[in-house]
Amino acid sequence: MDGFDPLNKDFFESVFNWTGIGIGVVDLYGSYWKINDAWAQMLGYTNEELLSKSIRDISHPDDTEKSYSSLQAMIRGEIDSYRFEKRFVRKDQTEIYCDLIATPFKNSHGETVGVIGVMIDISDRKMLSQQLLSLKNLYAGSALVHQNLLQEKDLGSLLEEVCRIGVSYGGFVAAMVADLDRTTRQLHIKTTACPDPVIKKMLDVLELSSDPESPAGIGTVGESVRTGRPVFINDFIAHPNTGQWKERAKYANVRSVASFPLKKKGNVIGTLIVLSDKIGYFHSEVLSLLTSMAESISYCIDSLDHRENLLLSSTVFREAIEGVIIADYHGKVLMANRSFHEITGFLPEDILGKDIKVFHSDSHDRNLFRKIFKSVATTGKWEGEVWNRRQSGQIRLHRLSVVGISSKEGMLTHFIGFLSDITAQREEEDRMRRLAFHDPLTGLPNRMLFHDRLDQALRGAKRSDSAVAICYLDLDEFKPVNDRYGHQVGDELLKEVALRLERSIREADTVCRIGGDEFIILFPNILDENEIERLGEQLLQEVSKPFAWGDELLYVTASAGLALYPNDGAELTDLLTQADWAMYQAKKYGRNRLFWKVSPSAPNDSEF
Question: Where is the PAC domain (predicted)?
């Protein structure tokens, strides 16, 4: 890169390879000049292969323009940096989601000669978030399907609506229902919901069979119809039994397929087929939900001859996985199904004829229930989450859908509520969110959460003209303790260090564990630079106190490096680099000490 004045080589290499986070430097044309091993490994390339690429070569097509525009804007000096989530394409053509932070790379004359990019792999978090959102949408879609099952519709219209809801709420490539011809054992597509008309036309003429000797009978659909059980393939293109459909699956971007048999009086008469563009889509919770939906459709088919009694006595009402409750216009409970009693703990004799308010908890004020009534009266429905009281007094979170039933004259006469207990789901979502942002051993925030909090602290400091300090802290001689006493003792020592560090900081400060025996501490709102020394020394003193393990006292110390905004850098990556460098200087000059240096090239080192 023309005009580039390199830093000390050892320092430069340590910065590039200090962590598993990907780092790359591109020139003004977007071609890579330097990368670290982590970035090449994240993309599945060798360093030499990746250095021959440009940003456009490895960017997802949908993100290329945004990335290139931001790059050019920064080169032109219109923005100082940019940060957003971006998709890259690995060598094997799979996608990787990254949190991208980009800042200008300048030569010794202050001229922008390239861009430094820091990439954090957030693919797992993104996948988890997408799974949770998909499951949440499916629950909402399931409630809507069951509402349709209670309405007076012919079977064809009902199945069309089920497929449409599946695609709309589940985000499927397509949802189809196929009828079984028992004489020929052929399956004929009866209805298809698919946003893409070209793909829909292709799916409508699929050859499907339940005959195991026929090529069209191999795979999910044929096996599902033959066994009467749901069958799924979570990596359709790679599966050995999908040969004749493989090319069409690639064209339609179908990655997972599931088939759920539909029955009448216990006999399979067809199947509900669901296609997803995500590998591994059909995990246990999704399968359970879609199986229940298919079973409810089967119950509805069984009871079509008695449609006039469906509202109060159909099998769908009795067997629905959601709790169903019917109340009159005044809120008096008329009927509730078995699932409702299981969900709430209230027996029929406890609630029939009683006001529906018996379930209400104190978590909501009257405005919520006025809002529900107004929505049902004006739009015919309401959906949301409500904290309700079980018969035992326990408070549970329920997904509630309410629809109104009107007379022929259009007067609202009844309310039907569909209830699902989503307490465990919400607790699992909270747990997974915590796992995504916290260290599992110590419970401290992890690197990802630290980056977010540091970014917020820097934004606040720029607005309030205050300072922010970060401190990299690495334990000295931890490995000998870990090797001598074992990992259990080592883990307990790390947890004790975490507790001591948390006790030593201010309320606004944050302690994070970033891996191994490394910690990083964020000090926002620094009003006096002298305060840094006091805070840092306090941390080292706490760590150096003996640790009791049985009858023995264990001793470790720590080396720490400090960086201060704005003195040591104005951007997140600058501060992280400076603090990491300073920590290694503390190690170099004898350990068990604090080190702070304004700039790697400045003469005024500060060793505390």
Answer: 82-134, 382-434
Length of the chain: 608
Cα distance between residue 167 and residue 500, in whole Å: 52
Output the pTM of the full model.
0.42
Pick from 169, 114, 179: which is nearest to 139 by CA? 169
Distance CA 137, CA 169 (A): 5
CA torsion sign for 563, 569, 575, 580 is: negative
Amino acid at 212: P
What are the tokens at 525?
A: 């709102």
Q: Which of 63, 121, 439, 517 is catalytic?
A: 517
Whether 97 is in a domain gets the answer yes
Identify whether 517 is a catalytic site residue: yes
Looking at residues 198-207, what average pLDDT do you find? 82
How far apart CA 50 and CA 44 sit, in angstroms, is: 9
Same domain, 15 and 79: yes
> What is the number of structural domains in the chain?
4
Other CB atoms within 10 Å distance of the CB of residue 196: 13
- What does the pLDDT read at residue 124? 73
d(CA 311, CA 326): 9
Q: What is the pLDDT of residues 275-307, one digit of tens each?
A: 988 888 887 777 887 887 788 778 777 766 455
| Residues 6+ away with beta carbon under 8 Å from 415 | 326, 327, 328, 329, 331, 376, 402, 403, 404, 405
User: d(Cα 323, Cα 391) in Å, to the nearest integer?
Assistant: 15
Amino acid at 169: Y
* Angle between helical axes of 155-170 and 123-149 (0-180°, round to 10): 160
Please check whether residue 329 lies inside any domain of the structure.
Answer: yes
3-state secondary structure 58-74: HECHHHHHHHHHHHHHH
Same domain? 295 vs 156: yes
Tokens 């988890």 belong to which residue? 128
Q: Is residue 454 part of a domain?
A: yes
Task: Tell me the per-residue pLDDT of 44-76, one tens digit each, with 9 for 90 and over.
Answer: 999 888 889 888 888 888 888 888 888 888 888
Distances (CA, A) of 498 to 469, 483, 586: 19, 20, 20
Domain boundary among the residues 405, 427, 449 is at: 427
Residue 413 shares a structural domain with residue 447 = no
According to DSSP H, which parts of 150-219 are helical? 155-170, 197-204
**Tokens 């309320």 — which residue?**
507
> What are the residue ranges of helices labelled H in 171-214?
197-204
Range of the structural domain that residue 218 is part of: 127-310
Q: In CATH, what number is assigned to the domain containing residue 362?
A: 3.30.450.20
- In angstroms, what CA-CA distances link 461 with 565, 574, 576? 8, 15, 16
- Report whether 237 contacts 245 (CB < 8 A): no
d(CA 546, CA 316): 66
Task: Show which of 427, 448, 475 is a domain's final residue.
Answer: 427
**Ramachandran assignment for 411, one of left (phi > 0), alpha (psi -120 to 50 degrees), beta (any other):** beta
CA 160 – CA 222 distance, rounded (Å): 22
| Cis peptide bond prior to 566, omega within 30° of 0 | yes
Q: In what order do the strands lie in the sheet with 557-565?
A: 510-515, 518-526, 467-476, 557-565, 594-597, 605-607
